[in-house]
Design a protein that fits this description.
The structure holds two protein chains of two kinds. Chain A is α/β, with parallel strands linked by helices. Chain A contains three helices and eleven strands; from the N terminus they run βαβββββββββααβ. In chain A, strand 1, helix 1 and strand 2 form a beta-alpha-beta unit. In chain B, helix 1 runs antiparallel to helix 5 and helix 6 packs across helix 7. Chain B has a seven-stranded antiparallel beta sheet. In chain B, strands 11-12-13-14-18 form a five-stranded antiparallel beta sheet, with helices on one face. Classes of the chains: A alpha/beta, B alpha+beta. At the A-B interface, loops of A face helix 11 of B.
């Protein structure tokens, strides 16, 4: 099914999408409509334009492709499925994600992956092709964030990254030159670390026609919580 | 005001939308594009306030202060007009033309005056023209119950009301004005009532501010700025931002960039890492004007003669996107509000928290 969304209200557009029986849905002329593919499961939606706030929020499965940019809070509290954004994303991408994967071709704004967590087989992933704003992976409790810095910016991440991080992994292609909290350690990613994200990098390259060799041409920095109990040094033992 | 509307008695989830653009080549655009832009973010407001400001709209009166007034009734109008007559040379006065619509109701009397301070009064006051006009505006807003000056700059004007911004733009017939820069606001009041005087923009002389967010430091800022003769009587936190800019830039002679280093001052730990000279300046501004540091989430567009300025709070707790196409710079809460009037852009980005964006005519 194909929907022409120009000038359509968010609620109306989402009702049409939800009531559609087709697996494949194409939405053209999107501009700012919110909550597209919210709670989506088992569908393949392609949206053309600038998709509004909360795209793919609470998504359970299926695929949302955005041929354009996404605004704030794409993949908010997402549980499963895949989101591909062919442009840039606003703030709080993958906010409190609990599963699923988000691939962004260009940059993401502030607070990407804030409060992401993992449990059992649910391991959320965010792959960013460009750079990420400040507070990347704030309060990170689980899952994986990778920043590929394909435009080779001097510093692909902003200040206050990994603040309060106590689980999960953040990969950054190149060096991290911003100050890091004491509860986080940064090290050169080893071969076995890179193996863990190889399938996702493959997917990214396939989706956005990126060159895998170029991605691996530079070493990655890996950020992890410092120890079993990263707050040991911050709080009094009781 | 009925007590059930006071802060704490009612809680509405936050929203608000801002948008603005400036033609850096000085080209004029009518009000239809800015209405279209702010209307795209309809869901961010709730119909309790909308407003616009346009620059370059009164070329035939460009040397006169354009005073826009709300009056509760003809009685107070008469009283204010006597006051204006006593202090100013009024070269033109009229009702601001409106287009009646069922979506905008309970309007006050809305009038416009093009004025110049009377030379004798001005000399007697020992003030410059701007200060004279600003003091008269505060005098009306503070002491004349039921009358509000909501715009008093030269060759610019604000238009605001209770309603959705697209309806407010229709109501004020903005398609009949031509400006080189426009700013707009859609309101979703969270802490204070939605009333005509409380809609954005908040103006003083040629400064106009639209704001999305909530100023946690409002009362500290208000107490500080009221020491310098400003009066916050419009029941909306944003008002104080306008006065802070006016105080720092017009009265203290700071540049706009320096004023932003006061309002969204860098954190001490960032200051510690700065090179010596920059650190000294940042420390100086933080210490001298500590009472004017604005905390809490905000994205703000400031309009002034010949330019627009945009700034986020230091932690960037509100969305803001900046874009360029040819000689026009766009600023909005959401990308869609820019794309709707400029689908293809040369450049689009989100400024960092505390980063100043300035776009000016001829630059």
């Amino acid at each position: 099914m194909e929907i022409y969304a120009k000038g359509m209200e968010s609620r109306h557009l989402n009702e049409i999408i939800r009531s559609c029986k087709d697996k494949n849905i194409i939405v053209r002329g999107v501009n700012g409509q919110r909550f597209i593919a919210c709670g989506l499961d088992g569908k393949d939606i392609t949206a053309y334009g600038t998709i509004g706030n909360g795209a793919g929020a609470y998504m359970l499965g299926g695929v949302l492709r955005v041929e354009g940019s996404a605004q704030d809070a794409a993949g908010d509290t997402m549980n499963g499925g895949e989101i591909y954004v062919g442009g840039r994303c606003g703030d709080a991408t993958g906010y409190a994600m609990r599963g699923g994967e988000i691939y962004v071709k260009e940059d993401v704004g502030y607070r990407a992956g804030v409060h992401m967590k993992q449990y059992g087989e649910h391991r959320p992933v965010i792959v960013v092709g460009g750079t990420a704003g400040c507070f990347l992976g704030e309060y990170l409790a689980g899952g994986v964030i990778a920043v590929l810095n394909l435009k080779n910016e001097k510093c692909p991440v902003g200040e206050d990254m990994a603040r309060g991080m106590h689980g999960g992994r953040i990969y950054v292609r190149g060096k991290v030159s911003v100050p890091l909290p004491v509860s986080v350690t940064a090290s050169k990613a080893r071969r076995e670390d890179m193996e863990l994200i190889r399938p996702q990098i493959e997917k990214f390259c396939k989706a956005f026609r990126a060159d895998e060799r170029e991605i691996y041409s530079e070493e990655f920095t890996l950020l992890q919580p410092a120890a079993g109990n990263p707050y040991n040094r911050l709080y009094v033992n009781n | 005001m009925e007590s059930r509307y006071y802060e704490g008695k009612v809680r509405i989830p936050s929203g608000c939308a801002i948008s603005g653009f400036i033609n850096r080549d000085g080209r004029l655009s009518d009000g239809s594009a800015i209405i279209k832009s702010i209307a795209t973010m309809h869901d961010r407001s709730n119909g309790l306030g909308g407003g616009f400001a346009g620059y370059g709209i009164y070329p035939e009166y460009k040397d006169y202060y354009a005073i826009h007034m709300f009056y509760r009734d003809t009685l107070i109008k008469k009283q204010v007009e006597e006051f204006l007559d006593e202090h100013f040379d009024i070269i033109n006065l009229s009702k601001i033309p409106v287009r009646k619509t069922p979506k905008i109701v309970d309007e006050p009397l809305i009038w416009r005056y093009f004025v110049k301070p009377l030379p004798t009064k001005l000399a007697e006051s020992q003030l410059d023209e701007d200060e004279f006009v600003s003091r008269c505006a505060f005098r009306i807003n503070t002491f004349m119950d039921g009358a509000y000056v909501f715009s008093c700059g030269k060759n610019m004007g604000a238009f605001k009301a209770v309603g959705y911004p697209e309806d407010v733009g229709e109501f004020y017939r903005l398609d009949e004005y031509a400006a080189y820069s426009w700013i707009a606001h859609g309101r979703y009041p969270t802490n204070t009532p939605g009333w005509w005087g409380g809609a954005h923009p908040f103006c003083l002389l040629d400064f106009a501010v639209v704001h999305n967010g909530e100023i946690s430091s409002y009362d500290a800022n208000r107490r500080n700025i009221e020491m310098y003769g400003y009066k916050c009587n419009l029941q909306t936190d944003t008002e104080v931002i306008t006065y802070i800019f006016d105080y720092l830039v017009r009265k203290r002679g700071l540049t706009l960039q320096e004023a932003c280093k006061v309002i969204a001052a860098p954190f001490w730990e960032q200051i510690d890492r700065m090179p010596a000279q920059e650190r000294e300046q940042a420390e100086y501004l933080r210490r001298i004007y500590s009472g004017l540091l604005v905390t809490g989430p905000f994205s703000v567009i400031l309009g002034y003669t010949g330019g627009l300025l945009a700034i986020n709070d230091r932690l960037k707790l509100r969305g803001m996107v900046v874009a360029e196409k040819g000689n026009t710079t766009y600023i909005a809460s959401e990308e869609c509000a820019i794309r709707v009037i400029a689908p293809v852009l040369d450049k689009i980005y989100s400024p960092k928290g505390g980063e100043v964006v300035i776009a000016e005519v001829g630059r």
